[in-house]
């Protein structure tokens, strides 16, 4: 059990402020105690729930993959051309044209990490592999996922396998590791960084995507901030708290790209009105019966883009390298 109100990121114990935060994804409205560190700004849960699995019901989204089949031969060939054009040094006219015609996908996020089409990829907290199936269909061939909350191992084919394993059971090393909105769900943050260090090849990069507690969003919504998602999110990092924990674990942060969207506004505005994320009249569940008009949502998207440029959006992508 962690000590009361001692920051588990920077270890500061003074002037940390407590908050009681409600579960508003499923709308149980159960309250959980959090505190905000006065030094690094990280908001964190006071004590971890005894049975965290109970807060990941079947409709949480861990299992929601629909199409698991591979694309046909021609489509697969074209996609691979595009992937190699974007990530490798293999420029081709076909790749160039496809890149113009098809809007940039998830592979764009991997480019700053120096990922190549033949890189071995590990995704920590992958669920059933929504993102990973997408990457396999784009032409990546060596993909591993891990998630303790899935029901069992999922071996899709020779290119993609997902294990129901603890991080300590995974063996590497990998050319690239990513965590897409999973770090905030994990109790022992330093331990996670230790495994990242063990599993990444020297000189290769790690990408961590998390919600970020920025001054703008915290001042605007406080405990009604949609991305808080109590009690599943144990840590709502700030850029400062990420710098502290990365440095302690001997990683340098090479780049930070903010990638927040309209979610930060509509989810929070709904909580202000006591509307849980998964209720029938939530924008997340049903755009048409939600509170928001299309132009309001467009306004949220525009505002998010502006905030991202100023490093104030509520989600970011951290690129780290072991020192
Ligand atoms: Zn702190």
- Order of SSEs: EEEHHHEHEEEEHEHEHEHHE
Q: Please estimate the helix content.
A: 25-40%
Q: Assign an overall shape.
A: globular
What's the quaternary structure here?
Answer: single chain
Largest sheet: 8 strands, mixed
- The helix-and-strand class reads alpha/beta
Q: Beta-strand level of the residues, as a percent range?
A: 15-25%
Second CATH tier, the architecture of the domain at 59-210 and 250-322: 3-Layer(aba) Sandwich
CATH topology of the domain at 59-210 and 250-322: Rossmann fold
Can you characterise this structure?
By secondary structure, the chain is an alpha/beta fold. The chain has a domain at 59-210 and 250-322: Rossmann fold. It has 9 helices and 12 strands. It has helices spanning 73-87, 93-101, 107-110, 130-138, 189-199, 215-221, 239-248, 263-272, 294-309; strands at 17-22, 31-36, 43-45, 121-124, 143-146, 154-155, 160-163, 174-180, 200-211, 235-236, 251-258, 315-322. The protein has an 8-stranded mixed β-sheet with strand order 6-7-5-4-8-9-12-11, with helices on both faces. The protein has a 4-stranded antiparallel β-sheet with strand order 1-2-3-10, with no helix packed on it. A hairpin with a 6-residue loop joins strand 2 and strand 3. Helix 1 (73-87) packs across helix 2. The longest helix has 16 residues, at 294-309. The two termini are 31 Å apart. The model has no long low-confidence stretch (mean pLDDT 93). It binds zinc ion (ZN). Zinc ion binds next to loops.
